[in-house]
Amino acid sequence: GAVVSQHPSRVICKSGTSVKIECRSLDFQATTMFWYRQFPKQSLMLMATSNEGSKATYEQGVEKDKFLINHASLTLSTLTVTSAHPEDSSFYICSARSGQGKDEQYFGPGTRLTVT
Amino acid sequence: GQNIDQPTEMTATEGAIVQINCTYQTSGFNGLFWYQQHAGEAPTFLSYNVLDGLEEKGRFSSFLSRSKGYSYLLLKELQMKDSASYLCAVRDGPYNTDKLIFGTGTRLQVFP
């Protein structure tokens, strides 16, 4: 089956610093990747849609200058949380889709970000 | 607006059957997904419905009624490992956008 990895799985950073999270599709090429955020006991909220070779599409209310997304290749998308604050502490999950005709999104294992 | 409703919590006994309901009101509809998520882990795919009716997959079945904006996930022969959150998600918009809108999730606890 399709496998999506994320790195790191957990990260603790100080307020004001930036953190980069990587999302990789290991055994398929992902034309589209998605970034979600999940707060405790809440559901997944889509942050942005990342298409290879083009700019990401951000959901309403998500600051594109704060959450930088780069999808430089068909197997890698990165999310950089810039100038992190404690309220950015959350579970960040990426998912990937191989292309049209494929119904399913494959989720990565998630990254737990804690900003102190 | 976009609205997907699920019960917040449910409990059931090992070996029993449980039905988790999901109602949705979205501007578009191009399929409904059910995912299972254990605490601190990523969601895993359970089922997909785009046409009305029942899709069966082993111990799990999912039903969709597009006219009613309603779906349910049926879990049979419950096992302790089925204790998890179950997320209903609607694909909103054109097929190739694949944008999913998630419900709040239902936390299921299975007791011995």
What structural category characterises the helix and strand content of chain A?
Answer: mainly beta
Q: Which structural class fits the helix and strand makeup of chain B?
A: mainly beta
SS strand fraction of chain B: over 45%
The CA-CA distance between the termini of chain B, in Å, is: 40 Å
Give the largest chain-chain interface (CB within 8 Å). Answer: A-B, 21 and 24 residues
Q: What is the helix fraction of residues of chain B, given as a range? A: under 10%
Please state the average pLDDT score of chain B. 92
Return residue spans of chain B where pLDDT drops below 50 for at least 5 consecutive residues. Answer: none
Oligomer: heterodimer
> In total, how many beta strands of chain B?
11
Q: Tell the overall outline of chain B.
A: globular
- Please outline the major beta sheet of chain B: 6 strands, mixed
Q: Note the overall shape of chain A.
A: globular
Give the count of helical stretches of chain A.
Answer: 0
List keywords for this structure.
heterodimer, A: 116 residues, mainly beta, seven-stranded mixed β-sheet, four-stranded antiparallel β-sheet, 11 strands, 0% helix, B: 112 residues, six-stranded mixed β-sheet, 55% strand, globular
Explain what you see.
The complex is a heterodimer of chains A (116) and B (112). Chain A is globular, with a radius of gyration of 13 Å. Chain A is 0% helix and 51% strand. Chain A is mainly beta. The mean pLDDT of chain A is 90. In chain A, strands 2, 4, 5, 6, 9, 10 and 11 form a 7-stranded mixed β-sheet that branches. Chain A has a 4-stranded antiparallel β-sheet with strand order 1-3-8-7, with no helix packed on it. By secondary structure, chain B is mainly β. Chain B is built from no helices and 11 strands. In chain B, the strands form 2 sheets. In chain B, strands 2, 4, 5, 9, 10 and 11 form a 6-stranded mixed β-sheet that branches. In chain B, a hairpin with a 6-residue loop joins strand 4 (32-37) and strand 5. Chain B starts with a strand and ends with a strand. The interface between A and B is medium-sized, with 21 and 24 residues.
